[in-house]
Amino acid sequence: IFKFLGAISVDLGKDRIKPYLPTILTPLYRELNSTYAEQDPTLKNLSQEIIELLKKLVGLEAFSLAFSSVQKQANQKRAMRKKQRALQTVANPDIAARRKLKRHKNKAETRKRKIEFLRPMYKAKRPRSHALKDLAMVE
After folding, report:
1. CA pair distance 39, 93, nearest whole angstrom
2. How buried is residue 99: exposed, middle or buried, by Cβ count under 10 Å (0-12/13-18/19+)?
3. pLDDT level of residue 21 (50, 70, 90 thresholds)
4. Given 21, 27, 32, 38, which residue has the most CB atoms within 10 angstroms?
């Protein structure tokens, strides 16, 4: 898709690409700023190349305006999601508590995995599997 966006940008040219610039930059910006653990470096490099191509094609001033608008929009979305999570904690404490318990459990599992990786002789205690208890509906 990134290659397609680059090809379309070159094909449209300087004047016709300007209205679509924020739309094209949104996925490129998202890829550049992603913090996923299993991130593909080739995608990051490709998005950087396409951004450089767009910068040369459109000019620094127009590109900067579009890029800053995309950045601002992404930051607003992030802040809105954070605010909604905080409001949900107050509005639905049971859901928040469940999420907190899940996060705590995952953290403990990660710690155990890390210990086993660093010290292969040591076996961390694993929770017993309660087949019937796991199948039960939790309300």
Report:
1. 34
2. middle
3. very high
4. 21
Tokens of 107: 């953290």
Given a contact cutoff of 8 angstroms between Cβ atoms, the answer to whether 9 and 21 are in contact is no
pLDDT per residue as tens digits for the range 36-68: 767 788 888 999 999 999 999 999 999 999 999
Q: At what angle do helices 60-91 and 93-118 cross, to 10 degrees?
A: 110
138 phi, psi to nearest 5 deg: -105, 130
Look-up: residue for tokens 């040591």? 122
**Which tokens go with 3?**
């290659």
- The tens digit of pLDDT for each residue in 83-138 reads 998 898 889 989 888 999 999 999 999 998 888 888 877 766 666 666 556 555 55
- Which one-letter DSSP state was computed for residue 17? H
